[in-house]
Amino acid sequence: MGVNRVWLLDSGSLVIDRSHVMWNIDTGNPVRFPVYSVLIDHTDGLFLFDSGFDKGTVEEYLAFELPEQTEDQTITAQLERCGFGPSDVSAVINSHLHFDHCGGQRHLPDAVTWVGKEELRHALVPEPFERLGYADKVFHRPDSVYRWLEGDEVDFADGIRLVHTPGHTVGHYSMVIDKPGRRPMLFCADVTYTQETWEKELISGFHNDPTANYVSLRKLKRLAERLDAEVFFTHDNAAWESYRHAPEHY
Asked: What are residue 161's DSSP bridge partners?
């Protein structure tokens, strides 16, 4: 029982200023960064942690982020590389609802969405400075089925634990996967973007509450040390190149 296989699905890439990766450090230097999702083959179903971005939405509302996403990098094509179709995904777990983490869900109409209760409430009525972050309104679909994540830790399924890590957004969750035969896998989502910012304890320039974000970062570092976990960074080009990409799996 538990986790069988884990794939990292390539969603393409975006561009932001490096000062947004490292909050006010090294301004005026644009960097391209990867976006990916985590597909989990579990005895209880096929689960997806985040779903990447929708290129059309980014081109319409955030064209300055210069989205690059080929047909092979769409969520449907990435699922096909792993031997699945959109209807096979039984649940999507959203770390949060920023546009680069929920855009693929328009192609997964049969999946139940699990998200922090406060995250969805906040996404529906964001603070003015958060509006672009929540530009993709895919979560407004009337046919979407939602289940709430509440509490400091959620045992989502055998071998999948979700950890509340607010700050980047109010309802942000990170994920720990315990797969037999290997070290635990810790997916930070957007608590911190890269290995460099992890080591230097830096957060991104986009956040709801920077103090809470720092608390969450240190919480994850303690957790990683206690579990001897392998840490996966969401928006780190060098790290991304070192990971296994679908159809290869962990």
From this structure: 155, 176
